Amino acid sequence: MITLHQEGHVKSLHKAYIYAMYVHPEYRNKGVGRMLLATAIKRANLLGLKQINLSVVNSNLIAVELYKSCGFVQFGLETDAFMIGEKFYDLSYMTLDLKGAILPSVDPHKSR
Ligand SMILES: CC(C)(COP(=O)(O)OP(=O)(O)OC[C@H]1O[C@@H](n2cnc3c(N)ncnc32)[C@H](O)[C@@H]1OP(=O)(O)O)[C@@H](O)C(=O)NCCC(=O)NCCS
Predict the structure, then answer these.
(1) Is residue 110 in a domain?
(2) Cα separation, 71 vs 3, whole angstroms
């Protein structure tokens, strides 16, 4: 699953936020996450949106690398954003500029 949420304020209607990207563990590493992300980006593009933002826990390297490979760049870092037990986690804020972006292509039948 993936959620693409368009901002509601009149001055922010050109932006969307991606959150709740999740692939069931049994189906991971088969290209599903990349396909979900590419579909959300294409949808945003079809809607005429200009920017997609998201946040991701820095140590979630699979997600961070997936976002980067689809053109997202980091624009902010919140240190110690989460505290779980005694451990702190940093949060990266990433953005994709859709103005003139080359949309990512995916092979939905990819399997490893
Ligand atoms: C992040 C997540 C959505 C990726 O979904 P997925 O279906 O496994 O992703 P894909 O199969 O499309 O793989 C995406 C890239 O990550 C890499 N990857 C996936 N699993 C990997 C693993 N276990 N080890 C190393 N790399 C991995 C793949 O190599 C792939 O890159 P490539 O296409 O260049 O080869 C999935 O791991 C997940 O649901 N994680 C838990 C929830 C989460 O962290 N969501 C993101 C919150 S911001």
Answers:
(1) no
(2) 18
**Contact call for residues 94 and 53 (beta carbons, < 8 A):** yes
Q: Kindly state whether residue 93 falls inside one of the protein's structural domains.
A: yes
Q: State which of 18, 27, 34, 111 you would mutate to test the pocket of ligand 1, scoring each by most atoms of that ligand within 8 A of its C-beta.
A: 34
Residue 57: pLDDT band (50, 70, 90) is very high
CATH number for position 75 = 3.40.630.30
pLDDT at 16: 98
CA of 11 to the centre of ligand 1 (A): 33
pTM of model > 0.90: yes
65 part of a folded domain: yes
User: With 60 as the cut, is the pLDDT of residue 49 above it?
Assistant: yes
Residue minimizing CA distance to atom 36 of ligand 1: 23
Our answer on whether the CB atom of 51 is closer than 6 Å to any ligand 1 atom is: no
Helices first, then strands: H and E counts in the chain: 2, 5
Number of domains in the chain: 1
pLDDT of 61 > 80? The answer is yes
